[in-house]
Design a protein that fits this description.
With about 350 residues, the chain is α/β, with parallel strands linked by helices. About 30% of the residues lie in helices and about 15% in strands. The protein has two domains: about 270 residues, Aldolase class I (TIM Barrel, Alpha-Beta Barrel); about 70 residues, Type Iii Antifreeze Protein Isoform Hplc 12, CATH 3.90.1210. Helix 8 packs parallel to helix 9. It is elongated.
Length: about 350
Amino acid sequence: MQTSFEIHGRRVGDGEPCYIIAEAGSNHNGSLEAALRLIDAAADARADAVKFQTFEARRLYPRTAGTSDYLGDPTPIFDIIRAMELPSEWLPRLRDHAHARGIAFISSPFHEEAVSALEPWVDAFKVASYELTHRPLLRAVAARGMPVLLSTGASDLDEIAGAVEALREAGCTCLVLLQCTAAYPTPPEAANVRAMVTLRSRFGLPTGLSDHTRDPVAAPVAAAALGAAVIEKHFTLSNRLPGPDHAFAVEPRELARLVARVRDVERVLGSGEKAVHAVEGELREFARRSIFTTAPIRAGERFTRENVDVLRHGKLGGGLAPAELERVLGATAARDVEAERAVVEDDLAPP
């Protein structure tokens, strides 16, 4: 598989800046206007992509599936999911608005027909953690020949290996694995950002983080420092809105702070090559040391610790390096040397 590829004109993968996905999910609450505002918020925060979710309640749960304990809502999960559905007729409008704002448009399909509905409109597919073992869905996604982002929450390495194999066999060549902890919100101590490195080592693929912690900065910055190719973060227009995903999502200003901090980390990480940086040039010349005279020395007089020292150049320019001090001490001056001048080779009489 490729280790870098393109999503809507932006390179993603090894050696590229971190690709930041603003996960709107189902936080539109059934309103097209809210969905468009979410796209605007993602673009204003300077994310690289906005992502929604495409599902139907009837393809996710039986009507009798019951209630979700973690949500603490007595409403049956089937009814909650049905109220969160994104109408397929919105897709062209959302894609066009995202592109007009300069960001990619991505969605997570949750059943095979959703893949077909999304294909004309999305720039990449995201596969949610709970779909990692859904082989029919994986095959449908891979067959489209588009980039795939696969979350790995609530899965072990063997299960992830099975999903990677299924995607590869079905034709997927552009894949990113996302470390994810499937808890909403995720306690910071459960984020396990280093698992991203484990996934990269095990599978030889670009990796990243799908972060469900409430903090907008800590886990994304850690991921960026560890070489994340992709960071995904849920966001909302307001934590006060009704719905299961708003409370743990970050708000627009926090999303903008996340993006800014990740870019800051990328700047300070640098290339990893150890060399003299251009910004060090002035002080390298000013503060490096050479052998200097500390008193006038007459021709034929010996150099001693009473008349030479190892000093910083300042604006005087350098001479013999400190490593030459032992050779200089005991040598005689080939000519008169004034005080506070760098000693150069021509100042030394031949032995």
